[in-house]
C-alpha cells in the first residue's frame, strides 16, 4: 500500500456577454475572450465561440462553444486541471452547467473546452435577457501530484492495475477504478471481467488510445505515420464514444488531405459521422485536377465499393 497526496486550488471567473445579437455573426473558431485571471499560480482566460467550433471538424453550428485557455504556460509545465462552465441567471445563480473531467494543460495543449455547450435556440429562449448573459468557469488546479498520481507514471508502471486487455496478441494492464477507464468500460459488455479481448484493432492504436485516456494527449509520432494513425484512432474513438479524441483525429486528417488519402478519408467521414471532415474532402475534390488524379487511384475503387451513395453526393458537389 502506498499513499500520495495532492493539493487542490479552486477559483472562478465570470464572463458577461453584452449585445448578444451582434455576436451571432462571428464564424466558427472566432471567439470572445475574457480578461485573464489567476488560479493555482497560473493565468487563465475564457473563450466563448458564438459560432461554435465547426472549423475544428465538429460540423454543427447549432451550438455555442466554450473553452478554458492557459495563458503563457511555462515550456516544461504540465497543469492538471478540472473545470466546469455554467450559465448564470441575473441573480448570479447557476442555471445550466457542463462539466469536464481532469485535463492536462501544457505549452503544447493550452486549451480544452466543450464544443457542444448549449444549443443556440435554448440559450436565446431561456438565458439571454436584455441581450446579455453570463458564463461562469470554475477552475480547480491539482498541485503537487506525487509518484503514481502522475497519469503517465501510473500507466507505464502498471502499479495497481486490475484489468488486462489483449489486443493483437499484446497484453496491456490498466486501472478499472481510474476515471480514465470509464470511457472504455462504458460501451463494453465485459464490465466485470479482469481480462478483456479486443478484436479488430491494432495494438499500436489501442496503446495510443489508452495513453490518451490517461493523459489527454497522443504519443509522439513520426510525421509519416500520423495520417494512418489518425485514421485508425478516429475509428476507435467513434467506437468508444471518445468525442474529444475523434475531433483531434478529424483535425489532423483535415490538415493532411491529399490525392492519396482523400478517398479513404471521405469513406471514414461518411461511416463515422464526421460532417466537417466530409465537407473538406468534397471541397478538395471540386478541383478537376484533384478529382482526375484520385479517380485513377485504387482508393477511388474502394470508395465506390464501400459507399456507393457517396458518388451521387460527390457528383452533386463537383457539378457546380
From TrEMBL:
PROSITE patterns: BTB (PS50097), MATH (PS50144). Pathway: Protein modification; protein ubiquitination. InterPro entries: BACK_BPM_SPOP, BPM1-6, BTB/POZ_dom, MATH/TRAF_dom, SKP1/BTB/POZ_sf, TRAF-like. Residues 161-222 form the BTB domain. CDD domains: MATH. GO terms for biological process: protein ubiquitination. Pfam families: BACK_BPM_SPOP (PF24570), BTB (PF00651), MATH_2 (PF22486). Residues 10-139 form the MATH domain. Belongs to the Tdpoz family. This is BTB domain-containing protein. It comes from Sorghum bicolor (Sorghum). The lineage of its organism: Eukaryota, Viridiplantae, Streptophyta, Embryophyta, Tracheophyta.
